[in-house]
Amino acid sequence: MAKTRSRNLRVGILTGGGDCPGLNAVIRSVSKALIYQHGATVYGIYDGYAGLVEHRYERLDARDVSNILTRGGTILGSSNKANPFAYYPPQKIGGRHEEPRDASARCKALYKKLRLNALVCIGGDGTMAIADRLIKKCRLRIVGVPKTIDNDLPLTDYTFGFQTAVQTATEAIDRLHSTASSHHRVMVAEVMGRYAGWIALFAGAASGADVILVPEMPYEIEKVAAFVKDRSRRGKKFSIICVAEGAKPKGGKMTVERIVKDSPDPIRLGGIAHKLSRQLEDMTHLECRATVLGYVQRGGTPCAFDRTLATEYGHHAVELILARRFGRLVVLRNGRIGSVAIDRIAGRIKKVPRNHMLVRATRAVGTCFGQ
Ligand code: F6P
Fold first, then answer.
1. How far is the CA of 161 from the centre of ligand 1 (A)?
2. 120 CB-near residues (< 8 Å, 6+ apart)
3. Does residue 273 contact residue 291 with C-beta atoms inside 8 Å?
4. CB 250 within 8 A of CB 258
5. Cβ neighbours for 360, distance < 8 A, ≥ 6 positions apart
6. How far does the centroid of ligand 1 lie from the alpha carbon of residue 18, in Å?
7. Known catalytic residue at 150
8. Digits of tens for pLDDT over the chain (371 positions)?
9. Dist CA 285 CA 172 (whole Å)
10. Of residues 287, 309, 304, 305, the one with CA closest to residue 237
11. Which of 27, 84, 201, 306 could join 160 in a cystine, given CB atoms 3.0 to 4.6 angstroms apart?
12. 19, 132, 150, 210: which one is catalytic?
């Protein structure tokens, strides 16, 4: 396979979408491998695609990416709103809101100005959908690395960030047990995940939640209420419910918290825990409380699994660049690192299958999925 001559190699790197634990570990892995092994020049682009359009970047040397393996967030900044194909210029204070425009030519201009051989885009489905358009319209040579706490990217077993989010959510739900048992309450914990229930399923299973509600299996509130009441009748003094932000009642809709107009995916979910808690209190006459875990799931130091996965992903991204295999997304499939074409995943979501092994295992120990 033809290899890019590593001398004079120039590579840009950006992080797009919501932040997640392990982003810095990938930045470190890609940058150090390129600098140490290939004497390459690496540019960090700030705030995802916003920096690519606005030409905000900085050259990264090895010292810039030292000591960041364990750090949460991203040293480059990120944006889950910036879209070069529908770009909203930053709004001036008191100024009028401008219409979005196609600023993809600005991305190409920066790519040329920096004389890049490749651009590494670390992100989720939104970032990859834009990467795909930049490849096709602007002929940019892009390699993708999959991140998201939601674990909803298809064709990869895991995205980095997911295991850390699950661990954080699990520990938080463990702590809810204290008040639940002391006050004999029903505690409803809302976790993130957008349209997929991966975090709810894994954190719910790991924390021994009595009820797990995920978007893939619309629930019947009567079934949840009956289950909780029955537990109480049988002398169980409390119940824990782990609900995904995207969970919805059978025949009903997801709970939308806000609409972010200038975002490629404008819907932000949230609020289901409070809704459920009120409904269940009315129906069961048991005391219910809601907790929304929110952004703590995205924060903090990555767990060991995410650090190692991020390091392997970064290393493979460099190998793809050297092999001139552009337009590829690094993935983990059946435990092996490999890659797939970015356009195979763009715009698609990996959902929890109803017969997933963990669904069957938790059902077998008596967990209710609201059906
Ligand atoms: O995709 C990651 C995620 O945290 C989702 O779980 C959540 O629905 C969304 O991002 C929240 O987005 P924002 O940061 O715009 O509030």
1. 13
2. 11, 12, 13, 14, 30, 142, 143, 144, 145, 317, 321
3. yes
4. no
5. none
6. 6
7. yes
8. 455 556 699 999 999 999 999 999 999 999 999 999 999 999 999 999 999 999 999 999 999 999 999 999 999 999 999 999 999 887 766 666 778 899 999 999 999 999 999 999 999 999 999 999 999 999 999 999 999 999 999 999 999 999 999 999 999 999 999 999 999 999 999 999 999 999 999 999 999 999 999 999 999 999 999 999 999 999 999 999 999 999 999 999 999 999 998 888 899 999 999 999 999 999 999 999 999 999 999 999 999 999 999 999 999 999 999 999 999 999 999 999 999 999 999 778 999 999 999 999 999 999 999 99
9. 25
10. 287
11. 306
12. 150
Give the mutation target among 74, 149, 202 for probing the ligand 1 site: most ligand atoms within 8 A of CB.
149
Q: Which two tokens stand for residue 291?
A: 């907790």
Token pair of 303 as six digits:
């767990």
Strand 239-244 vs strand 211-213: parallel, antiparallel, or unpaired? Answer: parallel
- Whole-prediction pTM value? 0.95
